[in-house]
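Q: Hi! First time doing this. I have a protein sequence and I read that you can turn it into a structure. Is that right? Here it is:
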Amino acid sequence: MCPVCLRPQSACICALAQPVLAATQVLILQHPLERQEAKGTARLLHLCLPGSRLEVGEAFDPQQLQQWLYDAWPGAEAAQQTLLLYPQTPDQPAALSALTECDAPVSVRRLVLLDGTWRKSRKMLYANPLLAQLPRLALTDTGPAGYRIRKAPRAGQLSTLEAGALALQALEGWAQDAPPLQALQQSFAGLIAQHERLRPAH
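A: Yes, that's right. Below is the predicted 3D structure, encoded as structure tokens:
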């Protein structure tokens, strides 16, 4: 097993990761059942984003989660604004309006991603009240998913890496042809190609 990406050496994804520098700090909370998922993209996203954090669990210790959400990380400042990438519901504060109506620019922003199926991510959300209280960043008009190696229950549902890339594009103000966005997209395409190459022929 590769000690970095935690995959078999024959399917190591470390070489696929293209480092991307972003001002937004990224925290990935991964459901335990996703850790060994061969088609998962969270680990690759983590490898692409130096300084990001990936923590595994379903119901986290509230004090520990509070630190991950708001406190300074090793080599990173404390977050002035923490957003959860998740579909908007009527009872949730809208992150996008908070971004546009803020009087002063936010210098340190942290983005939280839940890595799991929709069912698993909902369980993680309601098992951790601190997550449910976060203002949400919701993706709209995302277009078709490129995650053809893993079937989504609904059209337009994206992999963690795809969703993270689009969220960072919005927060960082990247153009469609911006090198950081293209690097993330190329890393994702490389993962898809590797999986299809290693998949046994029927």
